[in-house]
Amino acid sequence: MSDENQQDEKLTVEEHFERGLFASRWLLAPMYFGLVVSLAMLTLIFGRELLYYAPKILTLSSDKSILVVLTLIDLTLAGNLLLIVLFSGYENFVSKFDLDENEDKPDWMGTVDYSGLKMKLIASIVAISAIHLLKKFMEIGIPEADALYTPEKLKWLVIIHMSFVLSGIILAGMDYISAAAKMKMKEAAKK
């Protein structure tokens, strides 16, 4: 075999390998389907909570009704987080949605890159953590809750929440530095 034929064969093997690597992104599709199932589970849990508390609305104390609303908001934020990860992750890593210009398509679809996804993710986690922490603080003084959440456990909840907040600030700072560096490189390239 000549060197030229071997070179063509190597390119063919390399091209096949790269196509196989590229096609492997579809291994994520079942995971995204699993997130759809998770969203359905959250919807059922939301419905269960709503059906449980709706008949009691006239007998709930204001504190208890706020806790119920916070629980429903918490579940909704978790659902929003799932959708953001589901849509953005699928579009960034697997395939673009072929929805044409569907009027129901959210404006952010197709525009959230990995950096934006990361920031939306940490913002949602911080919001969910804050709601969870607020619920625990509102339960202070209720004997059953005090037995479950000692001052030590509450301290750890605050520390964990603050670590989420700090992580968000650090990620935002890293994105800012990265964007500033890219802007400087573009300006330097123009000169």
From TrEMBL:
Primary location class: membrane
Q: Which compartment or compartments is the protein found in?
A: Cell membrane
List UniProt keywords, sorted A-Z. Answer: Cell membrane, Membrane, Transmembrane, Transmembrane helix
Transmembrane parts of this sequence: 26-46, 66-87, 154-177
Top-rank taxon of the source lineage equals Bacteria
- GO CC list: plasma membrane
- Zinc as UniProt keyword: no
Q: How does it sit in the membrane?
A: Multi-pass membrane protein
Task: Return the similarity comment.
Answer: Belongs to the UPF0114 family.
* HAMAP family in the cross-refs: UPF0114
Name-wise, this protein is UPF0114 protein OSB_06180
